[in-house]
């Protein structure tokens, strides 16, 4: 018996010694486990504008330019660039040492093909390619963009931070049809992480590992710009659909971060010692009500103006967010806290002045046609918006027919041009990420090009001219003046209504450090204790 | 018997055909457009239209149905609208967690419920009987998600002895596999323990009143032998029926449990597919559920003849 005990002790001692002698790398594999705002179903960030796919894109692919914490455009894959004196020829040279995940070098040919694929889908890309005469390869590392006329948003377009982001892909992938999703085996980028296709289990998890060959820029990380230094070995996006389970898993230490915890859970999370709330996107999001201008009553711009006079932001923010720490009343259309922040033209609107709105409705000849207001019932941050809009509009004398449905039905219905009483709609409410609406060209709801505009189909020559002027504006002062003129025109011809800014903090384990302030959730620079 | 099984299997064909046509039409008539969902929030109407055309959703309904059914008959159930994966591949990834959870729950439920029901019947009117029946009422009344959250709070958050969520496949280690099934299994088993124990009790009490039980007792057989060998065996048919129904209910019941415990099973795949209007996935999952229902009913019918030799097909 004693012999057996001795043998056992010896075996345990040997095992301990062996484990101590194991290489440190094998012991210190750092994995970041994160619950994102949604499950990753689609892998192609050019095929869809979904934010979860955009976030996936930032791990795998790299961009020519990026915006920093102050939303200034900085070079990322580009080393140097120059503009000709006539501002028509832009020449870009790539950094040395850029490599695709399959080991092949990144070339100018890849970038030209990628810009073309992005430009075929994205509205800002379409505008850029619309003024482009030629996009050509000069040598392996250099390409040229030749414009038909000077264009002020070249760098802003190539450094566009949100959907669709101009990610650079290998030529053979970028030359595929932009209306066909790329295959999982083609998710090959030159970004700081490598997508592990074989470990991707839709509805369960997505795995990325550190790209050991990635050469980060030397500048410190700032926003989406600077050095993308990866400090963990592996990032796992664990999909947990139930918000209560997300919170329990974070408290129990099974995950390290929740990207989008519900606002009703924030007080509970704030009390936990091992969890901190961190607002990684200080510009946040903006609620919006979209008008359908094709049909009565909102086909009349004066009736839409009466609506923006009747509405007031704070009740919306209170109804959804509640805690003033996480929202801001902001009348600036292009987001408070940005260089284009302005309240020009906003004095008489968004004050909840129902008496004035009622008088305006009478003057506009409102005949009592009901506003068919679509209410989404399954997206937490949207559910309470429609009842508030209904109450405020009814107070001013509108008749409102609020119809409740799930968000996907809203998404399908908002594309219908039929009259509201035949399956169409008059208005619905949604939310924009601030990074998508930073200027009039980027902000989709300002597109007033009739049939080519987004659902709602506003049609206004003045707005379109102002947007074109903005795209060609030479400096920041001129851009701001155009924005102010645009806001004044918007009061006469409202395309949508901005209903306040709100913030979505991350819930982080206190083990994490280095989470960046950026318009998109990114995973470089993060360390885990 | 074989002729009976063959007849029953052939009878599933019209059932599945009806389900296929019904579900196909129902899905297409449901509001919601997968193309708009795929395109994302910032997409224009043109972008949505081009995706719709790519998916073949702009074709007439009958064309879409014939294309789908033609492929399905050749074993090609198509590709998910969202994932660049075939429906067969997606479902095969999700079957193991659901099957394992259902099996674990069933074993747990039967192992607890049948002895409890027999015990309650044997002690009819006593405190054990009342306790079992009280538990049964509670098991029926408390929603599954409430039980789930309470168990998580107690065993995962407060005591820290079980994980909150997730699933590990058996291939990743038996310990990890079983430890993650305990709470979901118990959560889901509560309602089935309530159901099966109640039926077992009622059925055994009824059998205990039969003449042959009195005869067995008169012959001097011990009470335990009478209860287990004579009463329970003859009470088996209703118990088997309710276990069978339980398995069918389990398939639907796992949806909530899979959500609370974040188990990537077929239940959650179904919910996700419905929310995203992923027609090819919903179509096949519902067909599969229908087939499983039919199969379970067939197995129950076959089981009857093993427990009651008087039943012959």
Give structural notes.
The complex is a heterodimer of chains A (529) and B (313). Chain A is α+β, with helices and mostly antiparallel strands and 529 residues long. Chain A folds into three domains: 39-187, Dipeptide-binding Protein, Domain 1 (Dipeptide-binding Protein, domain 1); 205-282 and 505-528, 3-Layer(aba) Sandwich (D-Maltodextrin-Binding Protein, domain 2); 285-502, Dipeptide-binding Protein, Domain 3 (Dipeptide-binding Protein, domain 3), CATH 3.10.105.10. Chain A contains 17 helices and 23 strands. In chain A, the strands form six sheets. In chain A, strands 10-11-12-1-13-21-14 form a seven-stranded mixed beta sheet. Chain A has a six-stranded mixed beta sheet with strand order 16-20-15-19-17-18. A four-stranded antiparallel beta sheet of chain A has the order 5-6-8-7. Mean pLDDT of chain A is 91; it is low at 1-27. Chain B is mainly α and 313 residues long. The longest helix of chain B is centred in the middle third of the chain and has 36 residues, at 87-122. At the A-B interface, helix 8 and helix 15 of A face helix 2, helix 3, helix 5, helix 7 and helix 12 of B.
**What number is the mean pLDDT of chain B?**
86
CATH class category name of the largest domain in chain A: Alpha Beta
Cross-sheet strand order for the largest sheet of chain A: 10-11-12-1-13-21-14
Radius of gyration of chain B: 24 Å
Query: In the CATH scheme, what's the topology name of the largest domain in chain A?
Result: Dipeptide-binding Protein, domain 3
How is the quaternary structure best described? heterodimer
What count of domains describes the coordinates of chain A? 3
Would you count the extended β strands of chain B for me?
A: 0
Interface with most residues: A-B, 53 and 49 residues
Describe the main β-sheet of chain B briefly: none
């Amino acid at each position: 018996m004693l012999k057996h005990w001795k043998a056992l002790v010896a075996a345990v001692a040997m095992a301990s010694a062996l484990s101590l002698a194991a290489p440190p790398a094998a012991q210190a594999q750092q994995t970041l486990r994160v619950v994102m705002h949604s499950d990753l179903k689609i892998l192609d960030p050019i095929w869809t504008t979904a934010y979860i796919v955009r976030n996936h894109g930032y791990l795998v692919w790299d961009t020519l330019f990026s915006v920093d914490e102050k939303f200034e455009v900085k070079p990322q894959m580009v080393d140097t660039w120059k503009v000709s004196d006539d501002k028509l020829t832009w020449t870009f040279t790539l950094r040395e040492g850029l490599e695709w995940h399959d080991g092949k070098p990144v070339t100018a040919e890849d970038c030209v093909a990628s810009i073309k694929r992005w430009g075929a889908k994205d509205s800002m890309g379409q505008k850029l390619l619309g003024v482009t005469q030629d996009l050509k390869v000069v040598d392996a590392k250099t390409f040229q963009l030749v414009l038909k006329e000077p264009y002020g948003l070249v760098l802003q377009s190539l450094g566009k931070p949100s959907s669709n982001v101009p990610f650079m892909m290998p030529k053979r992938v970028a030359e595929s049809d932009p209306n066909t999703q790329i295959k999982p085996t083609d998710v090959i980028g030159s970004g700081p992480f490598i997508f592990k296709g074989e470990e991707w289990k839709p509805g369960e998890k997505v795995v990325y590992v550190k790209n050991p060959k990635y050469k980060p820029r030397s500048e410190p990380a700032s926003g989406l710009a600077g050095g993308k230094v990866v400090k963990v070995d592996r990032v796992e996006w664990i999909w947990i659909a139930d918000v209560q389970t997300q919170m329990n898993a974070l408290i129990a230490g099974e995950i390290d971060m929740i990207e989008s915890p519900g606002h009703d859970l924030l007080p509970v999370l704030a009390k936990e010692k091992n969890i901190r709330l961190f607002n990684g996107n200080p510009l946040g999001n903006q609620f919006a009500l979209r008008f359908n201008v094709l049909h009565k009553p909102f086909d009349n711009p004066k009736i839409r103006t009466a609506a923006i006079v009747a509405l007031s932001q704070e009740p919306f923010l209170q109804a959804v967010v509640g805690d003033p720490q996480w929202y801001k009343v902001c009348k600036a259309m292009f987001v408070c806290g940005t260089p284009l922040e302005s309240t020009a033209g906003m004095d008489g609107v968004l004050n909840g002045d129902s008496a004035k709105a009622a008088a305006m409705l009478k003057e506009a000849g409102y005949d009592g046609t009901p506003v068919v207001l679509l209410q989404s019932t399954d997206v937490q941050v949207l559910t309470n918006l429609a009842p508030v809009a209904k109450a405020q509009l009814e107070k001013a004398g509108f008749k409102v027919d609020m119809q409740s449905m799930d968000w996907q039905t809203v998404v399908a219905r908002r594309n219908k041009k039929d009259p509201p009483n035949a399956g169409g709609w008059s208005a619905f409410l949604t939310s924009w990420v601030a990074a998508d609406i930073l200027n009039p060209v980027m902000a989709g709801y300002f597109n007033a090009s009739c049939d080519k505009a987004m659902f709602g189909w506003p049609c206004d020559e003045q707005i379109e001219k102002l947007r074109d002027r903005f795209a060609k504006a030479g400096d920041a002062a001129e851009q701001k003046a155009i924005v102010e003129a645009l806001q004044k025109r918007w009061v006469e011809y409202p395309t949508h209504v901005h209903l306040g800014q709100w913030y979505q903090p991350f819930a982080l384990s206190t083990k994490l450090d280095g989470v960046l302030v950026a318009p998109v959730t990114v995973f470089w620079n993060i360390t885990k204790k | 018997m074989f002729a009976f099984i063959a007849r029953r299997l052939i009878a599933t064909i019209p059932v599945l055909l009806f389900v296929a046509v019904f579900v196909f039409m129902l899905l297409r008539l449901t509001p919601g457009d997968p193309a708009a969902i795929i395109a994302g929030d910032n997409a224009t109407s043109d972008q949505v239209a081009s995706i719709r055309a790519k998916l073949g959703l702009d074709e007439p309904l009958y064309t879409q149905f014939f294309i789908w059914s033609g492929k399905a008959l050749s074993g090609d159930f198509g590709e998910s609208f969202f994932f660049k994966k075939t429906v067969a591949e997606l479902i095969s990834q999700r079957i193991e967690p659901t099957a394992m959870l259902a099996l674990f729950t069933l074993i747990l439920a039967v192992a607890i419920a049948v002895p409890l029901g027999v015990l309650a019947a044997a002690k009819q009117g006593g405190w054990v009987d009342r306790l079992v029946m009280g538990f049964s009422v509670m098991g029926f009344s408390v929603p599954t998600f409430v039980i789930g959250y309470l168990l998580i709070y107690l065993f995962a958050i407060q005591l820290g002895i079980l994980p909150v969520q997730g699933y590990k496949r058996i291939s990743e280690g038996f310990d990890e596999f079983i430890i993650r099934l305990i709470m979901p299994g118990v959560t889901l088993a509560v309602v089935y323990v309530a159901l099966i124990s109640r039926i077992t009790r009622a059925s055994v009490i009824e059998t205990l009143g039969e003449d042959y039980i009195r005869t067995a007792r008169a012959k001097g057989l011990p009470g335990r032998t009478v209860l287990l060998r004579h009463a329970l065996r003859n009470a088996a048919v209703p118990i088997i029926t309710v276990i069978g129904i339980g398995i069918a209910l389990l398939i639907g019941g796992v949806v909530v449990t899979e959500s609370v415990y974040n188990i990537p099973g077929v239940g959650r795949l179904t919910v996700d597919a419905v929310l995203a209007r992923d027609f090819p996935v919903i179509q096949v999952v519902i067909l599969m559920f229908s087939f499983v229902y039919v199969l379970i009913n067939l197995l129950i019918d076959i089981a009857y003849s093993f427990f009651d030799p008087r039943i012959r097909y």
